[in-house]
User: Which sequence fits this backbone?
């Protein structure tokens, strides 16, 4: 632990000076969201309602999930007003 | 093409001015309403806020584990019985030290309504300048879904099970928001996750109003795991709760209640209860009791919001 000028005998419970803790939450997923770029109208509802905030804006005016951390809850597919997002079973992506 | 598309972008993104202080992979259940709320607050209020919290679903993430942290915010973990008192101490220290800061006391409904209510009430009376946010998932979800004061009538939890003798919770839920508004504190509001623009506006208003004293926010955050709901339905549950008047959205400045979203034709409460398993067993008669309770709360709010215009006691029949 790094020395701290305020606490000589006791350190803080958790430190944010080192790298943050991170769980491989993408591993929990049984279905993944697949975005249809043709149907996407770029409204951003999937991005604001995603609890993990993994929907990212791409250069070609579309939203893409970060599949490393997407838990596959399906809120984006449910909230999309155009039905551009479908939840596809992970089994179909196994090579 | 890209220019044209930009105009359609939801206005909520304009309120998210700051970076997300949390790491990407955080261990909340899939579809958790709390996670969305927790990531939303520092992105609207700024990353320099200080959060105090209690043992709850939020604590394992906010407190960190094994000397490592899940986020870069300042966090102060307290006991459930002393949540608001500890926040008071922090606020007074910052005032003495001359540091301008926003202290956010972030607790669940168990702390706010049951265990830590004495502190909350005291802090409201003393008008301490901090923001108290209660995320309401209607039960003690972290310890295994026990009933709390805000669990609605008929809901099954592990302490109010459904069987031959007991048919879920047989008591009505308490209305924490109105209770706090009646203390005439500078700002009280209810919010939910289906209307994030409304939530962001209320958070910013609370940050401003905190200079005048105590601010209280009651946020409805569904728990798909505890309620037996589909994780994808989290936002839909919030939306139906507003549409059925089960959780009306209002704000009160100095005790003056104003509706922020008026529902002209409220839907029957069964539209909301059918979305989750905890109300599965409810018969027509049970639903009627719940509906009556919802209508009572709505009438109460309606009455309180016209308090200014007709501030006269109703005349009794004997006079």
Assistant:
């Amino acid at each position: 632990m790094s020395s701290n000028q305020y606490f000589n005998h006791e350190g803080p419970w958790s430190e944010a000076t080192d790298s943050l803790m991170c769980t491989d939450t993408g591993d929990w997923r049984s279905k993944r969201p697949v975005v249809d770029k043709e149907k996407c109208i770029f409204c951003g509802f999937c991005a604001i309602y995603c609890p993990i905030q993994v929907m990212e804006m791409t250069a070609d005016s579309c939203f893409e999930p970060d599949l490393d951390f997407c838990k596959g809850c399906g809120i984006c597919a449910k909230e999309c007003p155009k039905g551009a997002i479908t939840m596809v079973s992970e089994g179909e992506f196994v090579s | 093409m890209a220019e044209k598309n930009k105009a359609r972008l939801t206005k909520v993104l304009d309120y998210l001015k700051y970076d997300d202080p949390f790491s990407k992979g955080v261990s909340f259940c899939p579809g958790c309403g709390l996670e969305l709320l927790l990531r939303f607050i520092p992105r609207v209020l700024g990353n320099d806020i200080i959060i105090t919290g209690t043992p709850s679903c939020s604590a394992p993430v906010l407190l960190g584990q094994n000397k490592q942290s899940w986020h870069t915010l300042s966090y102060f973990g307290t006991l459930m019985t002393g949540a608001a008192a500890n926040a008071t101490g922090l606020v007074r220290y910052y005032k003495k030290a001359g540091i301008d800061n926003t202290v956010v006391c972030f607790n669940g409904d168990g702390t706010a309504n049951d265990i830590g209510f004495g502190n909350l009430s005291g802090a409201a009376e003393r008008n301490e300048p901090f923001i108290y946010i209660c995320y309401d998932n209607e039960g003690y979800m972290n310890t295994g879904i026990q009933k709390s004061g805000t669990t609605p009538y008929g809901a099954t939890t592990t302490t109010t099970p459904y069987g031959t003798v007991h048919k879920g919770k047989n008591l009505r839920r308490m209305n924490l928001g109105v209770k706090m508004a009646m203390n005439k504190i500078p700002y009280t509001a209810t919010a939910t996750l289906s209307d994030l623009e409304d939530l962001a506006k209320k958070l910013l208003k609370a940050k401003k109003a905190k200079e005048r004293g105590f601010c209280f926010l009651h946020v409805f955050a569904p728990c798909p795991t505890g309620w037996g709901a589909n994780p994808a339905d989290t936002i839909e549950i919030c939306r139906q709760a507003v549409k059925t008047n089960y959780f009306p959205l209002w704000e009160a400045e100095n005790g003056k209640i104003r509706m922020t979203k008026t529902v002209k034709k409220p839907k029957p409460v069964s539209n909301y209860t059918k979305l989750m398993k905890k109300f599965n067993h409810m018969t027509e008669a049970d639903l009627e009791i719940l509906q009556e309770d919802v209508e009572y709360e709505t009438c109460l709010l309606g009455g309180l919001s016209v308090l200014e215009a007709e501030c006269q006691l109703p005349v009794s029949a004997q006079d």
